[in-house]
Model the fold of this input.
Amino acid sequence: MSTNEIFERARLSRDARFDGHFFIGVKTTRIYCRPICPANAPKSENVVYYRTAAAASEAGFRPCLRCRPECAPGTPAWAGTSTTVHRGLRLIAQGALDDGNLEHLSDRLGVTSRHLRRLFSKHLGASPLAVAHTQRLHFAKSLIDQTSLSMREISVASGFGSVRRFNDTFKKIYGRTPGELRRRRDAVLTGSTFAVQLPYRRPFDWERLLSFFAARATPGVESVHDGRYFRSIAVGDERGIVDVCHTGDRLLLSLHGVGTKSLFSIVQRARSLFDLDASTDEIARVLSADPRLKRQLKKNPGVRVPGSWDGFEVTVRAILGQQISVRAATTLAGRIADRYGERINVPVDGLQQAPNRLFPEPHKLVRARLENLGVTASRASTIRSVARAAVDGSLSFDAAESPDDFCDSLQAIKGIGDWTAQYVVMRALKYPDAFPASDLGLLRAYSGSGEERMNPEELLARAEAWRPWRAYAALLLWGSEHGAGG
Done:
């Protein structure tokens, strides 16, 4: 079947598996909807399909108020076909186009603005500016529906700059002012603590993901308690705590101690941390062609690659974890945070001991005497070298970095090999094709108990068929009977 035939069947059956994969523009009403929209299905001749909400918006359609496109899981439209688009989307999510400067964004990505527009048009069906505008619009709409924040706070949090521009945009797009839209729903939360819903793509195994973070939670910085994930964050001069739990068919992100100005970037980082927008169907289609991975997919159909809140932090953790257990590395990370991390005091209702320090910034570890904390001399030296490189700019965790260039920069530091570099690019840069082929756990897991263990070169050759989702293959293997847990 052609793509349009597939979309047509999914639309008519309201197939939830396609939610977020495409959007439906209705020519007669000039509204765009999700495939699961409960409204009566329009005639086929009145329908046009778009890969992204931004593409539908750029074509002149406005969002449906019934199915609420802003609540769809993130669109994985790039699907691993363009690393530049992937990096561009991460930068846009971090606010790179808040000022509308496309030239600056293209410079950071190392391409011309014309080429960047061409790539976005090819893979997303919309320009970078349209993608940025639609993301901000959808985020603002979700805040109107889910919180009791004032319209001024929402306009700032969603990057509109002024309430007048915010009101004018909503009136143009939705045909209603933000205040009129709010009156359509009831407020859900008030006060200094507020929450935002994070929809995800199914299947999604919250317990498995939470277990991963629980085993690696840096004492004082992170914790997992009663099915909730907590971590300390710094936003400008504010110090706060992120609190994430699972409720119904989505995650709920609550913030304690921080305002709304940086809310959009915090939400995007949380989505990346829990890999909420993974293209589960496409990942399963590619990896299930391998019999071993197919068995693991049956056990973990919603495999996710855990991200990181901070690239430097996860790099230090990866170095500490070289050739020692996860538990031992976690203990050492806690000691480093306790000695060099900034203390904070942000109470959280229902949590007896909330995270009380931030993980130290790179400049704090440039001359840190980590050997006194039980870190081996060689690893302590490597951590100090990474800290210096981060401070002087020779190592950047910016989303604009290409995975290959980043790995080269990281491996240029003594004590950093391919395993560490691939692990960091997998979690910090969210590169879905990262693959630490030299990992003993992966080699043992793929070989199984009844075969001679293969070498890294053989595993790399086998993994060619798993592109561009090798990072997900690694998580499946680490979670297998013979894996090491990652």
About this structure: Residues 274 and 306 are 6 Å apart (CA to CA). Residues 186-192 have pLDDT under 50 and may be disordered. DSSP finds 22 helices and nine strands in the chain.
